[in-house]
Write a structure and sequence with these properties.
The complex is a heterodimer of chains A (about 170) and B (about 375). Chain A is about 50% helix and about 10% strand. The two termini of chain A are about 15 Å apart. With about 170 residues, chain A is an alpha+beta fold. Chain B is mostly helical and about 375 residues long. Chain B has one domain. The chains are: A alpha+beta (about 170), B mainly alpha (about 375). At the A-B interface, helix 4 of A face helix 10 of B.
Amino acid sequence: MENAKTITIVFDDEQPLLQAVKKIRESGANIIDVFTPFPVHGLDPALSMKRSRIPLVGFIGGAIGGLLGFGFQTWVFTVDYPLVFGGKPLLSVPSFIPVTFECTILFAALSMAGAFFIKSRLKPDKKFEPVDPDITDDKFLILVDGETSAEKIKTVLSGINTIEIK
Amino acid sequence: MDEQFKFTNQYRNVLAIAAIGGLLVFLASVFIFKPDASRVWANVLLNNQYFLGISLGAAFFLAVHRIAWSGWHTALQRIPESLTAFLPVAFILMLLLFFGMHDIYHWSHYEGYDPILEGKEAWLNVPFFFIRMVAYFAGWIALTRGMRKNTDMLQDSEDLKFHNRRKVFAGIFLVFFGVTVSASAWDWLMSIDGHWYSTIYGWYVFIGMFVTSLAFMILLIWFLKRAGYLEFIRVDHIHDLGKLLFAFSVFWTYLWFSQYLLIWYGHIPEETSYFIQRREDFEMLFWLNICLNFIIPFFGLMRLDAKRQLNWLAGIAGVVMIGHWIDYFQMIMPGAAGEHAGIGIPEISLTVAYMGLFLFIVLKALASRSLIVKHDPLLEESLHYES
């Protein structure tokens, strides 16, 4: 948990949450993060979030994996331990394809998972520090930084169905 | 909401000229160049199968979405539905094979002792071949009509029973289609190489059909949007069609490679003969097939933006359409026409003729009703769909 003062706003449905996000952003306050129990359609554009670059990591990881898988087999079967299987040439590309394919997927998946852990600073001994215990349950939550006073947020959000603002 | 496609005389004329002109050029080329009869009939079979595949792929698309209670496709369902209107015509065209049996299918007239063909005779004989053909088409036409009729009812009535009936038809269609799409692929395509067999062949043909159909739907949407229709089809619908085209192109490659790898690995002469002929005598097409159907859609549609850009997506869909024509060419021509095969005026003109006829029937069916099914219970969801 950051030491700086923050304001949390709790909702119990996605529609008021989306309205609130729009209003808070219009008022000029800065939203640090939003927590939802399930993916909410239209939330990313409402927060003007940039598109994730995870797919790019996946592509690069997959390309590296594919090349490594293919290269390793080529080296093993032609240089390191040449064996003839079923009368096929040493460098028989079709038989390398399944392993190349699997390596591509493995590297793409692991590189994306790894990039996600690094980017969100998750590590094995990371302690769970919830902003509010409700985010592990069924509540929707907006975290606004302390530059704006809670009073102002309350006036901005008048008319929207919030559970609490603190 | 009552937007209706107008099948104007201009469209009619262009398509009629394409159909009749293509046919005349084809007939002229047959009389002038005198290609081998096997090449002529193999061409007819190739185009029958290609356009039938677009219709059946569309029917499968509808059935599978309906049975899964899919909402997103509701706004564009009239497009695949009008594609299925070609099935009765495809049936008549397929019956033409009766006159070409001798030239395409070696098993229909072999002489002397041929233990392999004799073993298959219980299935591969001319009367049963046509009985099956009639049975396949009867089922496909009846079941797709059942789906289409009930959709048409939903244009005027809010009664949910039509929606539910459609789902029943979709379920029966999927079961029937699952069996017959494989069996028809054995009959019409695999039996050309009568001594050869491949157990994955039915699936491979079926996925080819589905990919062609998706590509054709994308092209049709592109065309209609350019002509000012289908305002209500969102970029999210396009995105999903793009995802399907991407995914099933990859799946097609998976099946293509599965078939190739097992035959290559097994190294049994009666199996490898199929690929040897295609790789040695049709080498360029063999590699072009993989390039157009896998490499271009795979890298061309990998990025998110590519799938949301209708112009780009339509370009890739066009490439895939050509690719699958070549794929069918690879399946049919080497076995049926052998050294007489080639891509020249007969092939191109007949495909143009078929395309004209196909589009004429499809657009006529599309124009017969409003472009949107007004009382479809899932329509509202589809109009606000976000992918």
